[in-house]
Hints:
- This protein has 223 residues and is α+β, with helices and mostly antiparallel strands.
- It is 31% helix and 22% strand.
- It has one domain.
- The chain has a 5-stranded antiparallel β-sheet with strand order 1-2-3-4-5.
Amino acid sequence: MNPTDVSRSRRRLIALISAAVVVLLLVGVGVYGLVPGPRTTSDPPPSRPSPAAPGTTDRAPRELAPIPETDDPEEFARLVAEALFEWDTTTGLMPLDYTSVLLKVADPSGIEQAGLASDIAGYLPTRDTWVELRKYSTTQHLEITNVFVPAAWAEAEAQAQPGQLAPGTTAYTVEGIRHRQGIWNDEPTSSAHHVAFTIFLTCPPDGDPCYLLRLSVLDQPLR
């Protein structure tokens, strides 16, 4: 390959990367929501728990179901939201197992994968916290109460240059209640916490399955 071809290839790569991360560069759209923030979901239980009975966490890990393919953006946003919040520390799985399920529906180019993995880490307990929560048979799931395209997304589309956003790229803000269950003081107990976040995704107009781009910081959604 001659120097001209190398230079042309570099320019194409830079253009591709710039287009892929345009959501991070748009001004005035709450870009703060696209960088990792405090891990509000990994806080330890509010009261002193009692360890689970011996052997309850020793069973072999089960395989997690993949996120179903769909070309419907709202349906995809709901599926991602549920997968992001639904976990069970008693299965023998670890946070990275849940992360891998979400990464399997990530941007197929791979450009956003590292950023997305960092986003997901902000929603899941750390490994050390997970090991602690496992002692108390802690599980979690999300009850979705509202899903909508935020008004701020229209501003992002208006500011984007032609070709910066892939066709079918959009954002959905999800509101819901995070439910957590476990065993404390030898008794079943639960807690509920309102959450909100934004999912950035692309559903190609040719009918190919939707894929995940990035996530906002938890409780810092676009409105």
